[in-house]
Structures are given as C-alpha cells and as structure tokens.
Amino acid sequence: MRYRAAAGVVLTALLFAANASAETYYVDPEQGKDSNNGSKAAPWGTLEEVMAAGRVKAGDTVLLKDGDHGRAVFSGDNAEVVTIAADKGCKPQLSYLEITQGTKWRIKGLVISASFAKQPYEGVMVKVADGGASGEITVEDCFVYSTLDTSKWTASDWMNANSGMTMGRHGTGHVFRNNYVLNTRFAINLCAENSLCEGNVISHFSADGIRVTRDGQTVQHNVIRNIYVDDKDGDKNHDDAIQCFLFNKGTGTVRNVTIRENLIVMRENEEQPLKATMQGIGFFDGPLIDFVVEGNVINTSHWHGVSLYDAQGCKILNNVAYTQWTEEKLRPWVELGSKDTGPVKGNQVKDNYAYTFKLSNDKEVVAENNQTVTPAVHQKRQAELLALIDEKHGKLHPVAGFRRLGLEKFRWAEGKVVDGENGPAIDTIAAALGKGKPIVLFVFTRDESDARETDACRQFEREVLDDEEVGKLLDQCATTGIQLGDELPRDVRKLYGIGSKSPQIVILGPDGKEVWSGKPGNAKALVKRLEAALQGISSDGG
Fold it and tell me: What is the DSSP code string of 254-274?
C-alpha cells in the first residue's frame, strides 16, 4: 500500500506553562486543514504540521485519525503530560518520530514505519531524548517496523535494515511499553538512566534485541524472538537477545539494573531463511553492580543463556536456560564470568535451571537449588510466563494485531499482476489455487485524489475486517489485498470478479471460480458469507 510522506520539520519549543484549560484536539490528514480550529468537527491536517505550528500546550491531548501524518520531529518541556495518540478505532501512520528533547510527552497507538517515507532513510525509526535534557517521555502501544514483507530479503538487506527504537542518553524516567518492533537491525536501544522497557514484542531482527547501557534500567515482560544472519552470512555482530555494556565504552560501571521475566526464543520456524544463533542474556562488559536477573525463560542454541561478567552483589534467580536444538553441541549455561575489570564477588545464584553452572570466578558465591533443565520444565515455565505477560499487556497487540508468540500472518499482503501461461494473473491468487481453501480478496483504494473512497476502505477495515470473528474465519482462507489502479488490467478484473469500486470482498473457490462478491454491510454479514464458503468446501469433500 502506498502513502504520501511529507518532509520533516523540526520544532524547538519553549517551556510550556501549566494550563488548567487543557484541550483535546483532532488531526485528520484526509479531512483536516491547517486553518481549522482542531475540533472534532474541524480537525487540523497532520501531526507534522501541528507540531511545527506550536499549537500544543501543556496537558493537551492530540488524537490522530487514519492516514499519513508525515515525519514528526519536535521538542519541548511540559508542566503537564501532553498525549499524542490514535483516535478510537484509528491507526495513524508516521514515517519517523523523534522527540529531540523534552519532558512529559506520551505517544500512544501509532504505526511508525520507514516504509511510509517519501525517500528511504537509514538508522532508527523512533528516537527520544537524544538531543538535550529530558524526562518522563513514554512511547507505548506503537507498531514499529521497517517493512512488512521480508520474504525476498538477502543477508545484506537484514544487515542494512532500519533499527527500531532508541531511548537517548539524556534524562531519566522514560518508558517504552507494549510496542511491537518488527523486521529491524537493532530493535530497542536504552541509553537513559532509571528508565523502563516493558511488555514489548521484538520479532525478526538481525543484531541485538534490547541493549542496556545505563544505571537503574528495568527490562521486564518483553518477548524477543527470531534472529537472522550471522557470521557465515558476513554479519560480525555477536547477536544477543538482551545485551549490557558500558555507555562510555568501558569507563566506569553499570549499576542497579533489573532484567525480569522476559521470554526469549531464538527461532520459531525451521524453514526460516538465513538462520542464526543468539546469546540469551549476555552481559560481558562490567563491572556490573547490584544487578537482578530473575524469572527469565530462554530458548537458544548458544552457551550464554545467562552470563554476567565482573559481577558484584548481583542476583541470578529463578531463570530457565534451555535449547530445543539438541542436534547442536551448544547448551546454554548460567555463568559468572570475568574480563578482569573488577572483582567477581558477593553474588547469589539460586533456583535456576540450565545445563551447567559456571560460577567458580566468585569464590564465595551463594549458589542454591540450581538444577539441570528438562523439556518439561521449560515447557511449563514458558507457558506460565507467556500467560503472565498476556495478562499484563494483552494477548493481542492493540495496533499490530499479532500475538506475542507465534509467527505473524500478514493477511492482506498485496497481490501483484504477473504474466502467466494463460495471460496476466495476480501472483498471490495463482499461488493459492488448488490448496483446498477459499480465496478471499479485499479490494481497496489508496488514491489521494479520491479521498472519500480511500476513507471508506479504511473504515471498512476497522469495522468489518478487524472483527475478531471475521478474523478467525479468514485464518482458514487464503487472503490477499488488491489495490485498484491503472496497473490492474480489465481482463484480470474479469477473471477474478473484481469490480471498479472499493471496498469490495471477493470470495473465490479453491479452483479460482467466483463464489460471491460485494460489500458486506457489517462484520456479521461477512461472517455468514465466509461460513458458507467454508461449508461449501467441506460439503464437497475438500
């Protein structure tokens, strides 16, 4: 799907005064205008324009409608929290987000992707607090990804992919919570003291999942999974699910870090291309002082399940380090290592499960009830931890719509017209023929010159296609998205029963013949059509 991306504008704001008359404003790229007053009836245009104009004051809430809100780069100190969030039922999009400097900002529920940018760019897609004194910046419930389709990516593509989110070096009290970070190089980089990274899903990455670099950070209830490319592919990065190193490149210490109840899975699909291994919790650059690493469940084919080097007064408690890849010789351990940057002393290692425990560097370590891990222990503890994380942050991500564990299904990946043996066809439909499933097409428009039809398609997605019961039935079908446009030949439209208007649903049988087409008035109506198509296949013995 194509979206226009506007040029970036940097706003350097003055200190916003506390304001008892905080307002709620609306921003709509399809219907809004810069000359409007920002009310629900007369919304502003894009977030980029709003922030550039300096219209937001302390305590305000800015609700974003669907559409492309550009490249938002801004700053400012607020006496009360300013909230920038998706309006109810909307998934507003940004190509880049940066809060250069500031206090008391809350960003919630946005889709942020380099794929929306007018021109490709390198590096991170979300950055906060990297340009000056900052505090209490929260980014939560966002869907951050480089691109959705990586099926044809090479090793070079993975190594040059955009990174996800960076919490910069300035200030304290920042929060990254319940974001879904997909298809990146580095996923989340934490450089601010006394900050929180919790409930995030990191899926499909090629370097490190979470980097911890400063005192007082807490990393908890994150799911980290699916690593790509390693040394044999030309990637010299030593991949870690969670890594800790000194921000100042080896000068000083890192203190008071908590790594709690994170779920780590090296790989979920053995058919994954460009397979790689990763270290679990690998903290090699100390001294590390007063760390707590507890309740994590790790499934990886590497020695380093939980490794803390030059650790002093640290606690490693109740972790599980396991591998399902038993054909390999690597078995994850729990280790108190040393690079001789400081003494290894005063540590506790209790109630952990792993294959081995390498604790001899601490001559007085308190080690109790550490046992050899088994498949049954790992399975039980992973299920318990996933249930805990789901309870705290939800089974489905509120914007990405994916579960925290289990491969993502990109339901409406766009079909392309290709030349087949019998003339032009749509590649995704051709690939689904004869597989015994109904083939469901979502015909949509993303034409800026036809804002009404484009808006109707987005509304249809929200109100019908995102319905839970509809989704369950669609998961039993082959699905694809078809964007109307000049590149869709008339004979292809005729072949698949695609009309000239959108939104439209076309249901084909497994043989490609049309079963039904039209626009269901609501989710319940589409459920009936899908049930009938599935029942028809069952009745035919398909």
Answer: EES-EEES-EEES-S-TT-SS
